[in-house]
Each structure stands twice: as structure tokens, then as C-alpha cells.
Amino acid sequence: MLSRSGWGRRQDLVEDLWATKVHDWLLANVVRKSAHAEVLRQTWFADPDPVVANAGWALTVDRVAKRPEGLDLPSLLDGIEASMKAAPDRLQWAMNHCLTQLGIDHAEHRARALAIGERLRVLEDYPTPPNCTSPYAPCGSPSWSGAGRADTSPRQPGQGLPAVEIVGR
Q: What's the Cα-to-Cα distance from 50 to each of 2, 34, 61, 106, 107, rounded to whole Å?
């Protein structure tokens, strides 16, 4: 039987999970499609609240992948390098996603993105099932360099990831 105090902790966990799913759904299905997405991205990006900043970084990942024109990619890498290691979990995840997207879609920043991922080692120990790609940025390196992927044709930003086979894992 659950004690009242045990139930409270479980209820908090469920509420946190629910809030995360609603947050992610709202970003993906409403905010990203909004005419105000860029203004919100800029406003939320540096917000002191990590949940709000996470939303800004998530919108930035979308820009890096689909519409990088006008973004200062070296400054994004500077910010990731300076802040990602100590960031709260959800914000760290979004920054890591941005780092990976930069390395995949922008060959001119690939070496630096990979070096940052290897040095910071964020999400290195994240449990990853067999035949799945780890969120640890350097594990995505075959897709960044073209080694180990079936489609080696050049990709344009926003094309999405090719099928990746990571050899040696």
C-alpha cells in the first residue's frame, strides 16, 4: 500500500512527465508553426528559467536545420561550449541536440562541434538500446562525416538524417 508521502512523490513525477509532454507537444505543433516562432525563439533563448530557455534552444535547433541564414553559428557553438556541461537536464538535452544538428548539417563547423562533444562528454552514459543512436554527440560522428552511412550524397540543411549504421559499437 502506498503511503500518503509516497503517493505525493509519485504524483509529482507524473505531473512533471505530463508537463514535459505538453511542453514538447506545444512547441512542435503550435509554436514552431506560428508566425511568431522567431520572435519567441529570440526571447526565450536566453531566459533564466531553464524550461523557457529549453524552448528557445529547441526552436534554435529547428532554425539550424531548416533556416540557418542569419544565425551566428560560431556564437551558438561558443554558448554551447561555455554552458552545456553545467546546464539543467532538459536545457542540456536541447543544447546537445543543437550541437549535433550543427555538426550534421554544417560541414564548416563539424570538427569544432565534434571536439566540443568529445571534450564535454554530455550524455555519454545515457542508456541507449541496441541498434539505436546514442544522444551523445560524438556517437553521431559517422553521420557527420559520411562514414558508415548508406547515403553519402551531400545533404542540405533541413533534409533530415540519413539512415546511420554505427560501426564498432
A: 32, 22, 16, 26, 29
Residues 85 and 133 in one domain: yes
Give how far the C-alpha of residue 94 lies from the chain's centroid of Cα atoms, to the nearest Å. Answer: 4
The helix or strand, by DSSP H or E, that contains position 15, with its residue range, turns out to be: helix 4-26
- Per-residue pLDDT reduced to its tens digit, 115-147: 999 999 998 888 888 888 788 877 755 555 543
Task: For Cα atoms 26, 129, 168, give the angle at the middle one, nearest 5 degrees.
Answer: 125
Number of domains the chain contains: 2
Give residues with Cβ within 8 angstroms of 19, minimum separation 6. none
Domain hosting 89: range is 35-169
Q: Are residues 91 and 126 in the same domain?
A: yes
The residue among 116, 115, 137 whose CA lies nearest residue 126 is 137
Classify the C-alpha dihedral 116-122-32-153 as positive or negative: positive
Give the CA count within 13 Å in the CB-facing half-sphere of 135: 15
Mind listing the pLDDT tens digit for each residue in 6-24?
A: 444 555 544 566 688 888 8
